[in-house]
Amino acid sequence: MEGITEGVNNININISDSSALNRRNRIQVSNTKKPLFFYVNLAKRYMQQFNEVELSALGMAIATVVTIAEILKNNGLAVEKKITTSTVDMREESGGRPVQKAKIEILLGKSEKFDELMAAAAAEEALDNEEQS
């Protein structure tokens, strides 16, 4: 038993796979739980941390994800890297028949001007806070 415990304590895990990184910077969007700009601001924060963000949604929330991506792109903050669509088999809540739902994943990366635009926005917000004080 000691040998097993010692082996478990000495396990070294290296995460070099990019899909493992994507799990940390993935935002699963709902069109009912949070307001649109909650997700826009969260995506900005994830891009600051990880240089890219993956937006994911099912069914009716797909339009929300597309809107978030377009807001970030149109404001010059993000560039589109990859878009993946698929269908997912799901069961209805009561354990009924299986239902297929559309799924979209949009991978966005920082634009060249991302840091510059974020710094300008932070400076503007600091100035506004100063004026209100």
What do you see in this structure?
With 133 residues, this protein is α+β, with helices and mostly antiparallel strands. It has one domain (17-132): Alba-like domain (Translation Initiation Factor IF3). The protein is built from five helices and four strands; from the N terminus they run ααβαβαββα. Helix 3 (36-50) packs across helix 4 (62-74). The longest helix is centred in the last third of the chain and has 19 residues, at 114-132. It starts with a helix and ends with a helix. Residues 1-22 have low confidence and may be disordered. InterPro entries: Alba-like_dom_sf, DNA/RNA-bd_Alba-like, UCP030333_Alba. This is DNA/RNA-binding protein Alba-like domain-containing protein.
Q: How many separate helices?
A: 5
CATH domain fold name: Translation Initiation Factor IF3
| Mean of pLDDT | 82
The separation of the N and C termini measures 64 Å
Low-pLDDT regions: 1-22
Total domain units: 1
> How many strands, what sense, and barrel or not for the largest sheet?
4 strands, mixed
What would CATH call the homologous superfamily? Alba-like domain
What's the gyration radius in Å?
A: 20 Å
Task: Give me the CATH architecture, please.
Answer: 2-Layer Sandwich
Shape: elongated
Topology as a string of helices (H) and strands (E): HHEHEHEEH
Q: Can I get a quick summary?
A:
With 133 residues, the protein is of the alpha+beta class.
Q: Notable features of this structure?
A:
5 helices, single chain, four-stranded mixed beta sheet, alpha+beta, about 130 residues, 4 strands, about 45% helix, elongated, disordered N terminus, Translation Initiation Factor IF3
